[in-house]
Amino acid sequence: QEVCGELLRLEVPEWGEGDNPQIIYYRPKMNFLQQRIVKEFFDKGDFAGATVQTLIFRAVDEERKPLFSEGDKQELLREVDPDLLVDICTRMMKSEDEASIDELVKN
Fold it and tell me: Are 66 and 56 in contact (CB under 8 A)?
């Protein structure tokens, strides 16, 4: 049983090859436990950690298998352009009329 609904998709040209952007499927919402964990990052002022954790929780392949795991967190934090991570997560959140990451930081 899928708690978080049908999958949505977005294109990430920066991670693709040539004219073929990387397709990321994602869960439209996080469950309560995931939301609490992400909120704890924000509450501690760890904007980067909250962004990466959101990506880890939501990004899956077309078979609903996670694209990233907790073991990928440090690499995502060190190796990936932070503006790209924010853009991806913001697009995920806006697709369901959720608050953007910028709005969450303000609260």
Answer: yes
**Interatomic CA distance for residues 28 and 90, integer angstroms:** 12
Grade residue 106 by pLDDT with cuts at 50, 70 and 90.
low
How far are the Cα atoms of 36, 44, 46, 50 from residue 66, in angstroms, in the given order?
19, 26, 23, 17
Angle at CA of residue 17, ends 20 and 52, nearest 5°: 95
Q: In sequence order, which residues have a C-beta less than 8 Å from that of residue 80 and are 6 or more positions away?
A: none
Helices (H) and strands (E) in the chain, counts: 5, 3
How many residues does the structure list for the chain?
107
pTM for this model (two decimals): 0.80
Dihedral angle at the C-alpha atoms of 34, 44, 77, 51, nearest 10 degrees?
Answer: 40
> Is the confidence at residue 95, as pLDDT, over 90?
no
